[in-house]
Amino acid sequence: MSAGVELDHVTVRFGQFTAVDDATLDIKGGEFFSFLGPSGCGKTTILRTVSGFLDPSAGKVRIGGQDMAGIGPNKRPTALIFQNLALFPLMTVSENITYGLRVRGVSRAERMKKAGELLELIALPGQGNKLVSELSGGQKQRVAIARALAVQPKVLLLDEPLSALDLKLRQHMRNELRAIQQQVGITFIYITHDQGEALTMSDRIAVMSDGVIQQVADGKTVYDNPDTPFVASFVGENNPFTGRVVSADATIAVIETAHGPLRGRNPKNLKAGDKAILFVRPESFRLGQGEAQATVAAETLSAAFEGNATHVFLKGSTKKDVTVTVARHGGNRIPAQGERAAIHYDPAMSVILPEGKLARE
Amino acid sequence: MSSRLLVFLIPVIVIAIFWVMAKMERGVAHDPTHKGFFERNGTVLGVTFIVLVAFWTLFLVTLPYLYMVVESFHPKLPPMQRGGPDDVLTLEQYKSFFVTPTDGTWNTNHMSAFVFSLIASVLVTAFNFAFSYPLAYYMAQAGTAQKVRLIMLGLIVPYWVNEILRAFSLRLLLASKGLINQALMGIGITSEPIDFLSIDVGLYVGLSYAYLLVMVFPLYNAIESLDKNQIEAARDLGAPWWKIHRDVVIPYAKPGIASGCTMVFMLAAGSLAAPQFLGGPSTLWFTSIVYDFFFQAFNWPRGAAYAFILLAACIAFVMMMLRLFRVSLGETIK
Questions:
Q1: How many CB atoms lie within 10 A of CB B327?
Q2: Interface contact B233, partner A, CB < 8 A
Q3: Is-contact A12 A20, C-beta < 8 A?
Q4: A151 and A190: one domain?
Q5: Interface test with B, best of A68, A81, A87, A99 (most B CBs within 10 A)
Q6: What is the side-by-side strand order in the sheet with A322-327?
Q7: pLDDT (tens digit, 9 = 90+) per residue, B141-155?
Q8: Are residues A214 and A292 in the same domain?
Q9: Tens digits of pLDDT across chain B (334 residues)
């Protein structure tokens, strides 16, 4: 049982401050949907609006087609997993998991049975009588998921639930969350500032900045075909080259930058004279001279060896360095510090977007 | 006299026992890096600390109580006979609480005052809690910072007014021709004035008000540290507001509740001024009896015995309640 969530021109204001500005999107039932953005971008506000703790200043939230206006968080078919989990410290694991059933008046025997099932699902069988404080971070995480699932929500809302875990556990929990979502088949709405989490788990991602949804697409599209400079610079590493378009056709445009004219894809149909930014990802660069309008030459500042690859930093025209990821295979000589190095890229792997705000480093 | 002075040896003996135990402990587990008290603080400072702490704990706290305990086990004698052959140890004073010494009948007068005082204190505590909990919850979780400051001010400022003024202004309010009766008669709810004071309404209101802060602040402290997400989590899981309080807030605030209730109960049971000023003419508060033994009858031994009966009963009652609600004593004084 899952339900879709529709945001229909939702705006949330706190006094003068607009936290969410006219958000419209349609999350399908059973989808793993992520909101990705830096802190303060309004993603948590959206989550609280869907769960019912906040009322939109304008617009409508519909869950399963039903307008949620005037329906409190305790009456909505949603369950929320808090960033700090908010497990009840004075209750046992089982009591935590079945609390939602208890307030619904489900009998004790039935609650115990349900607790057993859910403990099985989260791979903590027989641990129901422990206190929450006796569990490890990852176990607490799973108890929070079980507690939310116990009330059989149609939509599960997750507010950066992995942020408190260490890296290894976080990566493990990603897979686990995805597996649980596929098993229970309900809609997951996931809030995160970690693009790795969003990219690996989600069916679709909404990238947000300053209360505005910048792009809604699957992970690959967001990465390869960003809609705005913010998306291009926030999701993954990217090297921006600002300038003015000098010539353009339907597929390719040439932009005059501090490093000379450079070519890139032109998905936004920019015209000659438009202010624009060319984005080339570090892994799209290759060392050495390439074709004329796809080569950048600059002084080498430093190199960082990271095992599977080496990041080489060249002096850029702005404060930001140009980053090149050099894969670890034979023949690549890492340029020495101070050496003038040439790098080139395939214009098909780059994108030129109209000028706009970049994500802060 | 000697039997009275003997009791002052008790603290000395206790200190000596601890000192010997400390010595032995040091002999068993000798830690070469450990520095003695005087080594750490220097002789002058060390002696000053010890003298100050000893003065406080022995002279100001322990000895007066010990003296009272001893006193309560002696007969009332004129000063000339104290220390004489008649000055023997006796349970007479404690017995007099149950059996009137003059005629040997049950001392119902004092016993009923005792029971009434305890029951009334329980009621005051309950009333106080019922009023303070919503207020403390609002201050700790719901209110904006500005409103909370206003409420704090509203709670604290009236305490600058002295107790007598407060008690008598309440009397004025509740008297037969007081504001409340006139208002009630004015809007026609009652034709006759209600004698609030003789039915002890004044007593309950006065006592509850007197110890309001003692209840509000422990509650506020306890609830304030509760993570808001806990409340929201319970709400999100479908709990209506009263179940959130029953299952999440009250269990969490239990130590604060226990602390507040204990203090209000103890203070109410031992209060003197409010019952005297606000109690009805037939109301006899137990502490008033104790007061009278000390200052009217000059019967210190009996007054002391009564006071210890009250103290023992209060402690026993509080311990029983803590036990019942499964709160440890340590938690309540956190």
A1: 19
A2: yes
A3: yes
A4: yes
A5: A99
A6: A285-287, A340-345, A295-305, A309-314, A322-327
A7: 988 899 999 999 998
A8: no
A9: 466 777 778 888 888 999 899 888 877 776 777 777 788 888 899 899 989 998 998 888 888 888 888 889 988 888 788 777 777 888 888 998 998 888 888 988 899 999 999 999 999 999 999 999 999 999 999 888 999 999 999 988 888 888 888 888 888 888 888 888 888 888 888 888 888 888 888 888 888 888 999 999 999 999 999 999 999 999 999 999 999 999 999 999 999 999 999 999 999 999 988 888 888 777 888 999 999 999 988 888 999 999 999 999 999 999 998 888 888 777 766 5
Q: From the CA of A160, how many Å to the nearest CA of chain B?
A: 14
- The 3-state secondary structure of B130-185, one letter per residue: HHHHHHHHHHHHHCCHHHHHHHHHHHHHHHHCCHHHHHHHHHHHHCCCCHHHHHHH
ipTM for the complex shown? 0.83
Q: Which of A209, A224, A239 is the last residue of a domain?
A: A224
Asked whether the CA dihedral B25, B27, B28, B34 is positive or negative, the reply is: positive
Q: Shortest CB distance from B237 goes to which of A89, A90, A99?
A: A99
Domains of chain B, each with CATH number or no CATH: 2-71 (no CATH), 108-332 (1.10.3720.10)
**Within 10 A of A192 (CB to CB), how many other CB atoms are there?**
23
Q: How far apart are CA B305 and CA B308, in angstroms?
A: 5
Is residue A156 within 8 A of residue A188, CB to CB? The reply is: yes
Amino acid at A136: S
A345, β-bridge pairs: A285
Instruction: Tell me, yes or no, whether A31 and A178 share the same domain.
Output: yes
User: How many angstroms separate the CA atoms of A228 and A217, rounded?
Assistant: 13
Residues 293-322 of B with CB under 8 A from A: none
Task: Measure the CA–CA gap between B82 and B85, rounded to whole angstroms.
Answer: 8
CATH assignment of the domain containing A239: 2.40.50.140
Phi/psi of residue B41, nearest 5 degrees: -105, -10
A182 & A328 share domain: no
- The beta-strand segments (E) located in chain B are none
Interface of A with B in 80-139 (CB under 8 A): 80, 82-84, 86-90, 99-100, 102-104
Cα Dmax for chain B: 85
Give the three-state DSSP class for A357: coil
Domain range holding A312?
229-354
Residue A1: both structure tokens together: 């049982």
Give every CB contact of residue A145 below 8 A, 6+ residues apart in sequence: A81, A122, A156, A161, A177, A180
Q: Which of B235, B243, B252 minimises the CB distance to A73?
A: B235
- Number of domains chain A contains: 2
* Structural domain contains residue A144: yes
Same domain, A100 and A36: yes
Three-state DSSP at B295 gives: helix
In sequence order, the β-bridge partners of residue A264 are A253
Residue-wise pLDDT for B14-31, tens only, equals: 889 998 998 888 777 767
